[in-house]
Design a protein that fits this description.
single chain; 253 residues; alpha+beta; Fumarylacetoacetate hydrolase, domain 2; 26% helix; globular
Length: 253
């Protein structure tokens, strides 16, 4: 199996260089386990080429997102770049979109079976944030290829962090999302696996299957409060999280 994965990684790497992110030869031909192993190997190559692996994303955590894409369990991907709130994205991204999430930054590592309280105790800060995604292929039709291609990840937009406290009820955080000045949806933290902390519990356990863990200094995108929305040139997205703060992003025209 290791030899087959190595060959697939080489195929995906060469295809990526050609701008083909969902290689047709692998359509309907990968298990989820194989897809994750390809993803992590490709991230390793990108890091070796000079990029930085700064954390993790947990996706498909809310009912709205799961129904949107027809897949009903969480998934993970790797974060390689982040920007401050107010950042202007280039207009040439591949079918970009955004998800409205809390991003957690960790002061202490986490590995294996952990509790929500252990997740909270390990935190350095919590950011209001957007995940910026690119639709580089049809996730609904082939989830394994999407995972091998790092689960739509492009970047993360981070608002100013707040320090975690014992009184925080992250499942009760309300996020109001505006697109071009118009409120489009309201979501709450309990949409994210009941509580965004549960995303990190899932991630810490899942990563052990692939000999990885959450490191001190990592950020973790915990999952969207609401469904994914597309972004077009000239768009301006904003979100206000009650008790946490605000984040915004623009797309160049």
């Amino acid at each position: 199996m290791a030899t087959e994965i190595e060959a697939a990684v080489e195929d995906f790497w060469l295809a990526r260089g050609r701008g083909e992110y969902f290689p047709a030869a692998y359509e309907d031909g990968l298990s989820l386990d194989e897809a994750y192993r390809i993803q992590l190997a490709l991230i390793g190559r990108r890091v070796a080429a000079g990029e930085r692996h700064i954390g993790w994303k947990v996706g498909l955590t809310s009912k709205a997102i799961q129904e949107q894409f027809g897949f009903h369990e969480p998934v993970f991907g790797c974060i390689l770049q982040s920007f401050h709130s107010g950042h202007e994205l280039p207009s040439n991204l591949i079918k970009p979109g955004f998800e409205t999430e809390l991003c957690m930054r960790f002061a202490q590592p986490l590995q294996g079976e952990v509790t929500p309280q252990q997740v909270m105790d390990a935190l350095e800060g919590i950011h209001p944030s957007f995940e910026i995604i690119e639709t580089r292929g049809d996730l609904t039709r082939n989830i394994a290829l999407a995972l091998a291609d790092n689960a739509q990840q492009h970047s993360v937009i981070l608002g100013s962090p707040v320090r975690p406290s014992a009184s925080m009820q992250l499942d009760q955080v309300v996020a109001r999302i505006l697109l071009n000045g118009k409120e489009i949806v309201v979501g709450t933290g309990d949409a994210v696996l009941g509580n965004p902390l549960n995303s990190v519990v899932w991630l810490a356990r899942k990563l052990t299957e692939f000999s990885h863990s959450i490191r001190a200094g990592d950020i973790v995108m915990t999952g969207s409060f609401v469904r994914q929305f597309p972004l077009a040139p000239g768009d301006h997205a904003e979100a206000d999280f009650s008790g946490i703060g605000r984040v915004e992003v623009r797309v160049a025209r």
